[in-house]
Design a protein that fits this description.
Elements lengths: L1 H11 L2 E2 H8 L3 H9 L7 E2 L5 E3 L3 H13 L4 H12 L5 H39 L8 H5 L16
Antiparallel strand pairs: 1-3, 2-3
Length: 158
């Protein structure tokens, strides 16, 4: 009886998965996925198998959401969390990820500007030409475009 009372008191201080979902705004399946990916760690279980989370899981979930908004992938977030759990500061790693992401973003912006110039030139030419006969659409068929595919950077695995 005393053991059951202690277990009940301990579980009262914990949150069931539905409560975590409601309080965090994250769906139950997403919470299970995060658990499998190592983002939340393993919750304790009741005798009947229900997941019980410590209340600090809400802070972890807020961190995960914030990191996602900043563009971090779940794999990167898991790595950052693992570094912290290993007693290391992940901040330098975070800065390096953002530095690399910024370079990639700048390159994509350059590609988009090139694409914008190509579209603007084509539209200007087409506005002057009006309709053109062709197999499907003479405007597209007569367009002068570069067929160079944009450079794609290979993602580095860590």
């Amino acid at each position: 009886m005393k053991k059951a009372m202690i277990e009940y008191e301990a579980s009262a201080a914990m949150l069931k998965i539905g409560e975590v979902s409601r309080l965090s705004g994250i769906g139950i399946e997403a919470l299970r996925f995060y658990e499998r990916q190592g983002l939340l760690g393993q919750p304790t279980r009741t005798v009947s198998g229900y997941r019980l989370y410590a209340k600090d899981v809400l802070e972890r979930l807020e961190f995960i959401k914030r990191a996602q908004v900043l563009g971090f992938s779940l794999a990167e977030i898991a790595q950052i969390i693992a570094e912290k759990q290993a007693g290391q500061s992940p901040c330098s790693h975070v800065r390096e990820i953002v530095r690399q992401r910024l370079k990639e973003t700048e390159e994509r912006i350059k590609e988009m500007r090139r694409h914008q110039r190509t579209l603007a030139a084509a539209l200007e030419e087409w506005d002057e030409a009006g309709d053109r006969p062709g197999h499907v659409c003479g405007l597209i068929e007569s367009a002068t475009v570069n067929h160079i595919a944009p450079r794609r950077q290979k993602l580095r695995r860590r």
